[in-house]
Amino acid sequence: MKYNLTDLRLFIAIAECQSLTHGAQKAFLAPSSASHRIKILESSLGTALFHRQARGVQLTQAGEIFLRHARQVFAKLEQMHSDLAPYAHGVQGHVRLWANTHAIHSYLPNDLATFLSHNPQISVNLEEQASSDILAAVARGDTEIGIIAGHDDHQDVTLLPYREDRLVLITSASHPLAGTSELSFSDVVAEPFVMLHAGSAIHTFTMNAAANLGTHLNVRVQVKSFEAVCRMVASGVGIGLVPREAVKQSGSPSLAVIGVKEEWAQRDLKICLSPRTTLSPFAAALVDHLRPEGV
Predict the structure, then answer these.
(1) pLDDT tens-digit profile of 53-65?
(2) Which sequence spans correspond to the domains of the chain?
(3) In Å, how far from its chain's centre is CA 228?
């Protein structure tokens, strides 16, 4: 390889400025030096990256591809520095934790705040993923700890209790269904719904529940948090299906809560571990902290 990070920064600067001269200035290089570096870069890659024009440069198709990858290189470098930065400030251990939407929005903020305040030498890399993806990642060893919802025992992982919760229907206080104590999901599947964004675990779960009834949900609005779901529903935009804990945390007096008859509404959260992987002392300490007392 006959190019380095300086060449990549120069290339990105020229591409963004659409000018070799201005790109060279942005990269703190003389135009002649910049031109020489770009020629060596193109020679090394075996293809032209720019169309030279009278008033600047334009990326070739190969240049467009190279620009995308060059930006990804620097994004990865920034992530690397971000991951390493805590160790320069006294952090001695790092734990990777994947959790589903419910856990991240409901329980983990307080639990992690308490854990990290008692363990300042530990950092936690938390990612939001669907429960099925978390199961697979833990089984592969891609993450040390997972928190999932609604899965029975899985042969490739060990499941420990974390929190008990249940999905409930919510409506505005003025909705015709308000005051109903319990309904089947089939009773409301035709109603307009307010949901978390596509790709969230509960969005996928709810859409699958509707598909099992042979129908599609009427999704009126998609938002980024359970708090936003509760606020939209309270305003009369539609109805929602959320964990009971999310309703408690919203504290909205304008919501009516309706029980769901189906067994799948019980969505207890569980800690997911690989039986083939020995936890680091830091990860083991986090698991002990997350498990309910007496379990």
Answers:
(1) 888 999 999 999 9
(2) 5-85, 90-164+268-290, 167-265
(3) 17
What residues contact 97, with CB distance under 8 A and at least 6 apart?
124, 125, 126, 127, 143, 144, 145, 146, 147, 286
Across all residues in the chain, what is the average pLDDT? 89
CA 266 to chain centre: 23
* C-alpha to C-alpha distance for 134 and 140, rounded to whole angstroms: 10
- If residue 171 lies in a helix (H) or strand (E), which one and from where to where? strand 167-172
Domain topology for 90-164+268-290: D-Maltodextrin-Binding Protein; domain 2 (3.40.190)
User: Are 14 and 50 a contacting pair, CB within 8 Å?
Assistant: yes
Residue type, 36: H
Dist CA 137 CA 291 (whole Å):
21
pLDDT of 89 strictly over 70 = no
pLDDT of residue 133: 87
Amino acid occupying residue 127: E
Q: Are strands 240-243 and 167-172 parallel, antiparallel or unpaired?
A: antiparallel
pLDDT of residue 68: 92
Length of the chain: 295
Instruction: Calculate mean pLDDT across residues 290-294.
Output: 79
pLDDT, average across residues 173-200: 92
Structure token pair of residue 116: 């990290």
Summarize pLDDT for 91-134 with one digit per residue, the tens.
Answer: 577 889 999 888 988 899 999 999 999 988 888 889 988 888 89
Count of beta carbons in the 10 Å neighbourhood of residue 139: 18
Backbone Cα Rg of the chain: 26
